[in-house]
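Example record used in the benchmark description.
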Amino acid sequence: MASMLLNTMRTGAVGQSWAVRSVARSLSTTTQLQAQVLSVKTESKKTLARPGVKNIVLVEGVRTPFLLSGTTYADLMPHDLARAALQGLLNRTGIPKDAVDYLIYGTVIQEVKTSNVAREAALGAGFSDKIPAHTVTMACISSNQAMTSAVGMIAAGQCDVIVAGGVEFMSDVPIRHSRKMRKTMLSLNKAKSVGQRLGLLASIRLAHLAPELPAVAEFSTAETMGHSADRLAAAFGVTRLEQDEFALRSHTLAKKAQDQGLLEDVISFKVPGREIVSKDNGIRPSSMEQMAKLKPAFVKPHGTVTAANSSFLTDGASAVLIMSEEKALSMGFKPKAYLRDFVYVSQDPKDQLLLGPTYATPKVLERAGLSLSDIDVFEFHEAFAGQIMANLKAMDSDWFAQTYMGRKAKVGTPSLNKFNLWGGSLSLGHPFGATGCRLVTTVAHRLKKEGGQYGLVAACAAGGQGHAMVIEAYPQ
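Model output (structure tokens):
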């Protein structure tokens, strides 16, 4: 598919409109990008409430500071971060612990000692051992899955109050012995005599001691996500300049939001034995000149994806309080937003690995009865700048919609005046299992700040999967 896309793009089958009015034009200079932080005020639109359908609301959302892996959190464990997020949510909301019916957490790379990290974090945060908790995994949309699972349980009448969240800890990922060494060790554990043990020990070879390191790669294709992003950028003709400009935009907007106190979901966390952390540490605005010096990180020597235009390995946790509107109001809470329609999509994990937003966006808009122009706030997960740009180009292509999506026409391109205005995963960081909650909470806060009615979250995920959700502002 990649070669077909590239050839078709080059011959103009996608149409020349892209060159004239697309995101590429919007990304022509860094100055223009920085100017796009102006808030967008919108007129009030109809509510998405439906007769006979329970309204489900986001009451509050918090997260620990997202830190570069190997920094201040390095000596902790995943459940430590998850526990901190849960305690932060309890402190901010003041909700009684026994009022929570259920807890759901998302994570990707599991610590084997705390495989159900939701349960361990909940117990550590002081929740009753009578409150069930389970952990879900769906790559980069794991906490999205945690939230929508909560929505489903509340809609079904199973619960009224659920805490959902996500955590990722890349500072200490599990490293395994080789398979042969593992088999030998398991056999040693079962050996009944000294002779059997000595025989097994004698069978060990030096090669058996080589560890198996985890890799951010697709099991089905054995290709790293960075390689996929590089090929996808090439297929859609996304240049290195465009990617660096978008990455600089993300860091610049994140720094401005941080300095202005807009990232109010971030809680302070006293790291045991170390200092208090109160802000993300991966926000580092640079310059186009400095970024241009970096060499390709994956496809060498001619690739366009670099360390500067990719999200970095991150430690962090998030937590949100989700309730039925009726329950929230009865307890005296003022919700932040309604959680409305959502969809999950899946496509080819090789050539379309990172195109989840392109497939999910039109589907969720149709479910909600909205058009792209109705959306006031967009928050898309930024795995790579090239991934974002490729999605925006695909969304603006009638040819792609007709050829690959079975649609009559393109969905269109989100206006960058509404897009990730407080930075994104490229700058804020991307703890795989925790990012979804950050996206949803940010939409709720931006809707209030900017006076918008509808927000849209979209994200890609490993395995060629994706997610999108419509969020509606709660009346002020």
